[in-house]
Amino acid sequence: MSTIVFAFSIFCGWLIFDVVKHRKLTLESLVSSLVIAVVAGVFWWILDLFF
User: Fold this and answer.
1) Of 6, 16, 2, 12, whose CA–CA distance to 40 is shortest?
2) What tens digit of pLDDT does each residue of 13-51 get?
3) Closest Cα partner for 39 from 9, 2, 7?
4) Residue 8 C-beta-side C-alpha neighbours within 13 Å
């Protein structure tokens, strides 16, 4: 459950960062935020398995 919350917060944070930086919401920023969130979620899940 913490992995999903972590990935969702990374997605929201990255999306907000991109929107503020580029001053508009694009499909590219949405997809890049989703990819970063999935990668961060998988990494967090792997860390959770070991620690």
Assistant:
1) 6
2) 999 999 999 899 999 999 999 999 999 999 999 999 998
3) 7
4) 5
Residue 45 sits at the vertex; the CA angle it makes with 39 and 50, to the nearest 5 degrees, is 130
pTM: 0.85
pLDDT value for 2: 87
Q: Please count the other Cβ atoms lying within 10 Å of the Cβ belonging to residue 16.
A: 11
Q: Is 37 exposed, middle or buried, given 0-12, 13-18 or 19+ CB atoms closer than 10 A?
A: buried
- Classify residue 24 by its DSSP letter: S
